Structure formats: structure tokens, C-alpha cells
What does this fold into?
Amino acid sequence: MESKKEIVKEYSNNDLTVVWKPNTCIHAKNCWKGLLQVFNPQNRPWVNMDGASSDRIEKQVNACPSGALSIKKSLKNKNMEDNNVKINVAENGPLLVNGTCEIAKADGSVEIKEKVTAFCRCGASANKPYCDGQHKKINFIG
It folds into this structure.
């Protein structure tokens, strides 16, 4: 059985990069219904980084329920030394990391996440290392 190669598209401006993984997308339409001037599926490319401020783009990307859209910031733009990170274990759910964290993935890529990041504890997520809610479907206890 041949595994599909993951497709990753990146769209950048001076402040940040929007990373899109189309195979992860569940087509909830949050991106373009919330910010059509940036995320327009009728346009090619479908992401226009000049359509809104970086803060507004980041806010919309953070509303992506599947994690198909994410933000990658340059480490030079982030001061992680003064970061206050808190970690909570959700009952029967994910590991919740509150604060800015740098995630070094197995493929060598690095991603910066801010605010709350939910990491899978049950092992069933199709979006590892992130939680996609599968713990509820498999009745994970932990």
C-alpha cells in the first residue's frame, strides 16, 4: 500500500508565513467565510497575503478547526526566552500547552505555536502531534 506524500503550501508576507496542508483540510470554510479577501478558493493562488494585516490573518488561521492552516513565524520575530508556558492535561483529552512554543517536528521542520496548542495523548489523531478530537470517538481514558 503506497502512502500519499504530504502536500504543504506556504504563503508569506514580511511578518509571517501561512502554511496550508490540503490533505488535512476538512473544508469547514472558516478561513474564507471569515476573511475572503485573503482566503478565496476561486483565486489562484487562493491565499493573498496582502489582503489583510498580519494580525488579522493570524487570527483567522487560528480559527482553523483541522490544523490544515497554521502560522510559521521567523524565530527572530519571537522572543521565547521570556515566555511563560503552562501545561495542562485535559481529562480524557489532549495535553494543552498555553504560551508560545517551538515545535521541532520529525521531518526537521520547525513551527511556532502561540496561545493554546492541543497535543494528542490518545494516539488516534490524524493530525499528529496535534489533537483532532479523535479521543472522544475512541473513548480515550487518561
